[in-house]
Amino acid sequence: MSECGGQVFCRRSTRACASALAKNPVLFLSNPPGITQSRRRGMLDDLTRLNHIKFADYQDPEIQTRIAQYELAYRMQASVPELTDLSKEPKSTFELYGPESTKPGTYAANCILARRLAERGVRFIQLYHRGWDQHDKLPEGIRSQCYDTDQSTAALIQELRQRGLLDDTLVIWGGEFGRTVYSQVHLTAKNYGRDDHPRCYTIWMAGGGIKPGTVFGETDDYSYNIARDPVHIHDLNATILNCLGIDHERLTYRYQGRDFRLTDIHGNVVKEVLA
Question: What pLDDT sits at residue 163?
Answer without folding.
Answer: 97
